[in-house]
Amino acid sequence: MRIPPYNRKYLSLLLVCLLSTIIIAKLALYPAIFNGIELGYPKVDDVSETMKTRDKKTILLWNTFFGDPTFSIGMLGSAVFHQTRCLYTCHLTNNRSKLPEADAILVHTYNMAPSRQNSTMPHRINTKQIFVFFIVESPLRSYEGFFETEFTFADIFNLTFTYLRSPNTDIYTPLGGVEKKSVPDEANFIGLDQVLKKSKMVAWFVSNCQAPSARIEYVRRLAQHVDVDVYGKCGNLTCEMGNGSCLNQVKRTYMFYLAFENSFCRDYATEKVFRTLKMDMVPILYGYVDFARILPPKSYIDVRDYESPRKLARHLHELNKNRTKYKEYFDWKKYYNVLMEPDYRAFGFCRLCSILNDKQYNYKKKFDPINDYWNPKELCLSDDEEKRAVHLNDV
């Protein structure tokens, strides 16, 4: 049957409108994509009407997040699900007496080693309960403590809630990120006059001098060619991270900040990266991370892009001499906002709530998170591999 031309015209318009509506709806739930960078909050999957239920699920936070009973989101109950405009509303609690009725038990696994707090593992009350493996420390740092106990995590956990980009990560929550502004503005933009006032080159705050990383050696090599001021236990300068006036002085004075991770493990980019982006210093990054995937172009310097610490220092001196070129490292602030770890974690709980309400979700059955998922032999570079990655053996 032939469709008259005018009918084809209206049919085409109808299809265009329908596709536009679908695209707009998905953009409200999915992270923005710009120049290949994933921006905004982690995606919350669409859930069909048949999967929705009026039954409010209970999520039990079994232990604390380094002493914080709310896991840094600052709220319990249903507040976080309302705040994130979640498709579903769950109930978040840290009351262990609720274990029998909990639908999901979230365990901060780093704390489960005997040498750390809250090392008593909860017992599954019924087979329908979902156990969530939550961790934000690198595999190198967390793995050692797991060998202190004869207890095994095998066949206990059903979901993973981490920063690792992996098909085995159910709830992906990075430790920070950026989102594109709806309208470009210069509210957080640094001007040339501020750039010209900076009088020092490189600052580094560090307290872990024995980290399993070659970063200390890299800084020693770098300091042979450019001034590096070290604050904290590993240096001779002091400035508490909670001291606002001191930090303001640092960011006004220094051009660059060493955001060096203490473990060279895949996707391990901590708050120091994103905190530095919020400040008016250019972060120099050291880690086993695809930074181009998570950060705006020309917002950072990656040590792996330079053939040696000496050549990196040469580039820093060039930027010091050409402040107009240096200022280009802040142009991204017109277009992006920086999000910190609690922002992402809040949406992570929304994602968890959505999964609990998804009757079709494929939960893990037989799973050893330590050996199959969080194994440093698979996720972290050896000392020699790390040194090669940052060109530490080159002149």
Automatic annotation (TrEMBL):
What enzyme category does the UniProt record give? Answer: transferase
Kindly list the places in or outside the cell where this protein is found, as annotated in its UniProt entry: Golgi apparatus membrane; Golgi apparatus, Golgi stack membrane
Question: Could you give one GO CC term from the UniProt record?
Answer: Golgi membrane
List the GO molecular function terms.
fucosyltransferase activity
Query: What are the entry keywords?
Result: Glycoprotein, Glycosyltransferase, Golgi apparatus, Membrane, Signal-anchor, Transferase, Transmembrane, Transmembrane helix
The chain positions of domain Fucosyltransferase N-terminal read: 55-174
- Please name the pathway: Protein modification; protein glycosylation
Question: Which EC numbers does the record give?
Answer: 2.4.1.-
Q: Name one Pfam family in it.
A: Glyco_transf_10
List residues traversing the bilayer: 12-33
Fucosyltransferase C-terminal domain: which residues? 197-365
Topology within the bilayer: Single-pass type II membrane protein
Primary place of residence?
A: Golgi
Q: Which family does it belong to?
A: Belongs to the glycosyltransferase 10 family.
For this entry, the protein name equals Fucosyltransferase
The organism is Paralvinella palmiformis
